[in-house]
Amino acid sequence: MGELLGAVLRGIIVLVGNALTVIDTSELFGGRRRRSRQAAFERGERVEFPCVLRDEELTGGREKRGWLAVGAGPSSWRVPGGEPVVFEPGELTMQAVDRQAVTFHAAGGRTELRLHPDEAPLVLRELAG
């Protein structure tokens, strides 16, 4: 009886382990945060969207993770623990799209911005407006 119970328990552990590898947990939990940011944006609040930015002036030409704040007031970008700086990239042109990110270029390729595909339309409307 103990062997049977052990085999069933091992089977359950293997099944749960395989299920966790199939489930995209970052997408599952990230979706809730994205919906929350979208709802706040629609209420007219200032919202910070996670992004990756490469800009000659703001990041020294290196890719850095940070947040792009849009909403009331001028758009700004900040790195973790840093102060926000005004972000005015000018006209953005879409360069690449995949399941995790949309990449935009501005200023002759000197600025590159990557956002989640669900949040890109909200940010672009605000930057263009």
For this entry, give a set of tags.
129 residues; alpha+beta; elongated
Q: How would you portray this structure in words?
A:
The mean pLDDT is 82. 37% of the residues lie in helices and 29% in strands. Strand 1 and strand 2 (63-70) form a beta hairpin. The protein is an alpha+beta fold and 129 residues long.
Annotate the secondary structure layout:
Elements: H1 2-22, H2 25-42, E1 47-55, E2 63-70, E3 76-78, E4 85-86, E5 93-97, E6 102-106, E7 111-115, H3 120-128
Antiparallel strand pairs: 1-2, 1-7, 2-3, 3-4, 5-6, 6-7
The strand count comes to 7
Q: Report the total helices.
A: 3
Which radius of gyration do the C-alpha atoms yield? Answer: 20 Å
| Spatial strand arrangement across the major sheet | 4-3-2-1-7-6-5
Order of helices and strands: HHEEEEEEEH
Which sheet architecture does the biggest sheet show? 7 strands, antiparallel
Low-pLDDT residue intervals, each spanning 5 or more residues: none
Strand content: 25-35%
Q: What structural class do the secondary elements suggest?
A: alpha+beta
What coarse outline follows from CA principal-axis ratios?
elongated
Oligomer: single chain
**Average predicted local confidence, pLDDT:** 82
Distance between the termini: 70 Å
Q: Helical proportion?
A: 25-40%
